[in-house]
Amino acid sequence: MVDTETVLDGDELRLVSLGVVTCRSGLVRGKWQSLVNPGVPVDEDSARVHGLTEDHLAGEPVFADVAPTLLAALQPRGEETVVFVSHNVSFDVTVLRGELKRLGTDLPDISVLDTMGRLPALVGVHPQSASLGALCEALAISHERAHDALYDAVMCAESVVELLSRAAAMGDDNLDVLLLRAGSVTTHTVVPFDPKKAFGSARAHRLPAEHLASHGEFLGRRAGARRFAQWHAEVAECAALRCRHLEDRVANAEPARARLLAELEAVLHEQVAAGDTAGAATVLGATLPLVGHIPPRSGRLGLRNAALAWAGRWGPLFAGLGRCDEDDQCPACRRHEPCPLDVWPEAVGRVALGDPERHAPGFFETKGRDAGTGAYTEWCRQGHKEVADAALALCMAHWRSVGQNTRAQQLAQLAWKAGCQHPDVVDAYAANIGAAGKEDDLANAVRTCDQTLRKRGDSTHDGWVRLEARRNQLAGRAARLKVRLSGKVDATLCVNLQ
After folding, report:
1. How far apart are CA 473 and CA 468, in angstroms?
2. Which of 31, 106, 131, 458 is the most exposed place for a label (fewest CB within 10 A)?
3. Facing residues of 325 across strands?
4. Could you tell me the residue ranges of all domains in the chain?
5. Which pairs count as long-range contacts for 199-207, CB under 8 Å and 24+ apart, including other chains?
6. How far is CA 260 from CA 131, 133, 460, in A?
């Protein structure tokens, strides 16, 4: 397990802290950490994230001094397989390959596993956000601080051991197969991390020094009304500045999550009332990890009903905002991640559904006389279609994660008939239609994708990217069926791939 902390040098990332944890047979076998003098100034934004300044790094070893220890940790012993594991693996691999390139060498070409990637969903784990802290929370692993290289590497190690243990318990005990299912790539083939795209060019979105300083003032557990009023103003300023550190401000606050949620909702209401789309999206991104702390209503389904009521109250307001403009974006849009205004139903659907192990069967029946019925249809009747579709996608992922692929396929087919338009559900349904590989089946599958893709609008939900990829895959298979024995292609029958 590897974690890096960096500073921005122009458009490049330079290493300032490196943490490495080695695991064998499901146990931590070694830990190592070193600060690294990057030889360049420490920019204020980076220092705000990890707290390291030029004073901290003065006199520390340069990367050339620590590289041999890193490379030694990535060498196999005997016949063992070494896997490079991290949270957001493209970031750490890109940083280390960049540093090693300056020394005229490279990382060994080994498999990578990203705990921010597909692995959690494969074993039925769905964190509230993409952060390592959210993954730890979903796995009931204590995670008290972030942006310390060794601590984050240890948390990543504990997380991946738990994820692999759950996979083994489900019968996925072949590491090579599991790596393929998780989207296997290597340190040399992983998509490079682009700081300019990910950070939206930090120089172009420079935050005032006074505002950055305010992030050092944490909201204590015993904060009174006056301090909460100040925190409210700080959050509002984050919204106005489209501040990428707002999620950290909320995560580091100590009062009860329900209390923080109420305060964030108050700021969110102000942004919505002002018609500030990017500001509202900024606050919503920090709010979504807390939706599981909505005060439950009375009754057996108190939290479910409270979550649906939250969706009913906020959903129409979000719809009226539109989406972030190209020249005025929330932090997620600047990082080229799904906008919170597009993915809020996922977070609410996860809370409203509850534990899929208990609630997936009754949420949408796939067998017998009741097939195609359940809570899903009731939610749709109540006007919660987006949340219902998101919860249905979670149910489908659950059936896959426990090895019930046939049931997942049945759910996708019945969901399509019931009008579900979630891109991941349609993706699965289209794949089922085209599985036989016959001409008519493939054409029908492509039409199904096209019919749904026309409803995408300007949504940034990454499920649409997956559905478009599925459409092109199916269209490619259909086109290949048209190749004549002579090797020529009948252009009139080929499926348009544009």
Report:
1. 9
2. 458
3. 328
4. 2-198, 207-344
5. 199/8, 199/244, 199/334, 199/335, 200/329, 200/331, 200/334, 200/335, 202/8, 202/43, 202/45, 205/242, 205/244, 205/334, 206/45, 207/45, 207/241, 207/243, 207/245
6. 19, 17, 27
Cα separation values, 246 from 34, 49, 134, 211, 235, Å: 28, 11, 15, 11, 7
Q: Which residue has the tokens 């559904």?
A: 353
Q: Please check the confidence at residue 204 and state whether its pLDDT lies above 70.
A: no
Reported as a single tens digit per residue, the pLDDT across 433-460 is 998 888 899 999 999 999 999 998 889 8
Judged against a pLDDT cut of 70, whether residue 496 lies above it is answered with: no
| pLDDT tens, position by position, 316-361 | 999 999 889 888 899 988 877 889 999 999 999 999 999 888 888 8
Superfamily of domain 2-198: Ribonuclease H-like superfamily/Ribonuclease H (3.30.420.10)
* Tokens matching residue 208: 């005032």
Token code pair at residue 77: 């012993």
Instruction: Tell me the pLDDT of the chain averaged across its residues.
Output: 87
